[in-house]
Protein: UDP-glucose 4-epimerase
Amino acid sequence: MKEKILVTGGLGYIGSHTVVELQNSGYEVIIVDNLSNSTLNVLERITNITKQSPQFERLELRNKSHVADFFKRNKGIAGIIHFAASKAVGESVENPLLYYENNINTLIYLLQECNALGIENFIFSSSCTVYGEPDSLPITENAPVKSATSPYGNTKQISEEILKDTCLVSPLKTIALRYFNPIGAHESAEIGELPAGVPQNLVPFITQTAAGVREQLSVFGDDYPTDDGSCIRDYIHVVDLAKAHVVALERLLSKRNEANFEIFNLGTGRGSSVLEVINSFEKTTGQKLNYKIVDRRPGDVTAVYADTQKANASLGWKAEKSMEDALDSAWRWEQKVRGF
Ligand code: NAD
Ligand code: WQD
Structure:
């Protein structure tokens, strides 16, 4: 058995897939989650896939004394992967303080414990949202950060600053992973994305429309300066994303990091338009999708895709799965959730 790793938000979408990959790579995992955007049965489903049950504790990371108490009771943590956060861009505009509290305070409480206990290895879930509307494509890690379009984006930008500053004055080593657009589900269809309420993201809206839960998909604009007029994003399979966390962790644990604060883009390096995703879904699954073109969604940027050379070269990681793999897995997951 390898080192013990704490995964915050480990019952959520990306966290659960990462726990599977960590366990498959021999790590011992402790998950903490407050179940605000996940359910306890994910634990069983992870166990079904890996045949090992991760340790779990229901913990509210906004409660500083509970966080301190958790670390008193759980010694020997070699590293932390911090997924727990609120992630809905629109909700963050309506309730910024919720986002600043949940995404910033929780990070600070964890880092205070890292300092106190000498936990040196930290992986942080950042987002391509920090790049805003990029000046050039593909986006490298050196592109200017300009996420002030939403409080959610601000929390990721501020969190990176907090981590960078902490790494300057402590033994902490951090890798911030800037995810592009994660999609898809585990091939077993045991775990996947479970949006609360009406999905805000494209792929869950597509699968729910195909499943008959939503009547029609709205395509937000076909008048962007792209080939087909719809927006372009870099959609990455969540299992590829999960695997990147394992290699990032191994980089820190084996002290192969080149600086104490490092940033990597995690994407495929390929941009796909909304209409291309719809086409690909229809072809892959044989499901005809009911969709219409509507006005642009405020705040959307035209095109975003990653330059992945730094992650390829330094982490030795590359996204391997295709858009078809991702959409097929998302559709099989949706069918399972709906009991088809
Ligand atoms: P998710 O909501 O599925 O998972 C987050 C988990 O954290 C949930 O299980 C939730 O219950 C838990 N949580 C939230 N606040 C908590 C708290 N105060 N205490 C304890 N647990 C708490 O989200 P996800 O899609 O898996 O995202 C994981 C991380 O990746 C987040 O930090 C998110 O901002 C970031 N990210 C996500 C995307 C995306 O599109 N999904 C893209 C870029 C970055
Ligand atoms: C993708 C494309 C929409 C829904 C968001 C966050 C970002 C990051 C990833 C966390 C866009 C179009 C969508 C629909 C549509 N998350 N669309 N109809 O906006 O690129 O990024 O998730 O860090 O911060 O902002 O992802 O899935 O919402 O949209 O036409 O019903 O699909 O306009 O072009 P987005 P998305």
Remarks:
- The chain has a mean pLDDT of 97.
- The CA atoms of residues 176 and 307 lie 16 Å apart.
- The pocket of nicotinamide-adenine-dinucleotide (ligand 1) is lined by residues 9, 11-15, 33-38, 59-62, 83-85, 87, 102, 106, 125, 127, 179, 182 (CB under 6 Å).
- The chain is about 40% helix and 15% strand.
